[in-house]
Amino acid sequence: MTQIISRDIPLAEITLRKYEKPFELDRRELVRKLCLSTGLLQPGDSRDVVVDILYVLLGARKGKTELSSEEIQQLVIESRKDGRAAMQGVASSNIRRQLKRLRDMFLVEKVKNRYRICEHDQISKIFEEKIEQYLLPSVIGRVKDYVNLVDKQF
Predict the structure, then answer these.
(1) From CA 13, how far away is CA 58, in angstroms rounded?
(2) What's the CA gap between 94 and 33, in Å, rounded?
């Protein structure tokens, strides 16, 4: 009998996709493309509530407002009604799961049970500091470790 030593659970994970340059997109579609580009949303996925959550938090950033998950849920429901989108994924458990994904991407932080865009900062600055300078080098370095070991062993 073989014994499982460890599970293949990644320490960090990132998906990046390249799309055409943004041109004449409405604000929600722009946020949707950002979510697609960063792997927060899969191409063709109809369950796109993460787009509305990020959209709501970006709107709250202007007033440096922090929102509870319940407030985010209500604003997402209103936003989806206004956009005549299906009410898929608006359950509170899913809202919290999507907020966790945004936190894992370093775009959103939780302060005293309230959520905000990290330090109310610009997304471009957050991407550069947290993803480009911190997460990407770490992931690429580890992939290189595997590549080098494969080269040595084969």
Answers:
(1) 23
(2) 21
Give the model's confidence band at 13: pLDDT under 50 very low, under 70 low, under 90 confident, else very high. confident
Give the whole-angstrom CA distance, residue 121 versus residue 42. Answer: 25
Decide: 77 and 87 in contact? Cβ < 8 Å: yes
- For 9, 132, 137, the CA distances from 28, given in Å and listed in that order, are 33, 24, 30
Pairwise CA distance, residues 76 & 41, whole Å? 16
> Dihedral (C-alpha) 75, 77, 81, 85: value to the nearest 10 degrees?
120
Q: Where are the beta strands (DSSP E) in the chain?
A: 108-111, 114-117
Calculate the CA 68 to chain-centre distance: 18
Average confidence (pLDDT) over 56-70: 96
Alpha-helical segments (H) within 63-91: 69-82
